[in-house]
Amino acid sequence: MREIYLDNSATTRVCHAAAEKALEMMTKIYGNPSSLHSKGLEAEHEMQKARQSIADALGAEKEEIYFTSGGTEGNNLAILGAAKALKRRGNRIVTTAIEHSSVMETMSELEKEGFEVIYLTPDKNGVISRDDIASAITQDTILVSIMTVNNETGSIQPIECVHRAIQAANSPALFHTDAVQAFMKMQIKPQKNGIDLLTVSGHKIYAPKGAGALYIRKGVRILPIHFGGLQEKKIRPGTEPCPSICALGAAVEELNNKKELKKHINDLNTYCRERLRRIDDIVINSDESCLPYILNISAVGLRSETLLHFLEERGIYVSSGSACAKGQKSHVLRAMGLSDNLTDSAIRISFSGENTEEDIDILIKSLEEALFTLARRSRM
């Protein structure tokens, strides 16, 4: 059976360049980068090359990149570190109701500690209003955390207005953005957009799981949440996983050389939308303005989990939402105001450079079959 993998927002297949780099780091350049002998210095040199690749992709300086284990740790470190560093200057935090669980759960913990957290709700297209952002930021706001691209719908948030709103409010707030679904898929330059803290993850861009990075603008102070050695300037102590880190650098370099990829993804998204619009009982939840890598739909009358397994039996892999939610109802779609009927039947299709129009054709045929057989069976 042919495998059609359309769950690339959950994770991607590791590219050859990244896999080869990881193998090299595990079998040849295997020293501890903190060791002072030649094997350690060699590993440190390779790790710094990866740091530079990520910095270049963000238009940042190498010293502003700190390695983490991925998006969840990066978000926790940015939010908790900023809140603890600035708690004497206020207790108000602004975020959104559509953030990844690693942000939502962290905010919940901060609320237990006495911080006031404002959750901005999106419009029907999943976008937070610029006016709502501006009005929510006050003089005692110490942190704003708004994702760049939503992981369930692909909605792109107006992060370019946040820094201006912070300045207008004369606020001491730091601005953090979860850019896990945006990094290497759209242009994002922290310095240009006034971003202080930015999170990325390797396994969303064809690198292995276990490596990510946190951009911390030069001059910004956050407090660590882990303690140990001197690695990563004590911001993220612990022996760095060099194989995964260097593989992340290799994946970034590989994507830099694939200038045609974004057009390919955009064409796939357009083709998929055209085919989906011809199917009765399919509702497209991702607006045309969303990042084309993600397409959220509802198959009315079918439960997400039922449809997911129906497609899996045919070698097609999609998601019923964020992988971290493990099948729970989508808080993102609820925040957008979607009915329970649409929320319960939603699936997420997410593309990679490996996908083709033929993959879409097979998906469409299977969706039509599912709506005919499963919906018919449910009515019997």
List keywords for this structure.
Aspartate Aminotransferase, domain 1, alpha/beta, globular, 3-stranded antiparallel sheet, single chain, Aspartate Aminotransferase, domain 2, 380 residues
Count of individual beta strands? 12
Q: Could you state the order of secondary-structure elements as H and E?
A: EHHEHEHEHEHEHEEHHEEHEHHEH
Structural class: alpha/beta
Q: Indicate the radius of gyration in whole angstroms.
A: 21 Å
Shape: globular
- Output mean pLDDT: 95
Q: At the fourth CATH level, what is the homologous superfamily of the largest domain?
A: Type I PLP-dependent aspartate aminotransferase-like (Major domain)
Strand content: 5-15%
Task: Give me the side-by-side strand order of the main sheet.
Answer: 2-8-7-6-5-3-4
Biggest sheet architecture: 7 strands, mixed
Q: What is the domain total for the residues?
A: 2
Query: Distance between the terminal alpha carbons, to the nearest Å?
Result: 30 Å
Low-confidence stretches: none
- Helix count, per DSSP? 13
Helical proportion, percent range: 40-55%
CATH topology of the largest domain: Aspartate Aminotransferase, domain 2
CATH class call of the largest domain = Alpha Beta
Specify the CATH architecture of the largest domain.
Answer: 3-Layer(aba) Sandwich
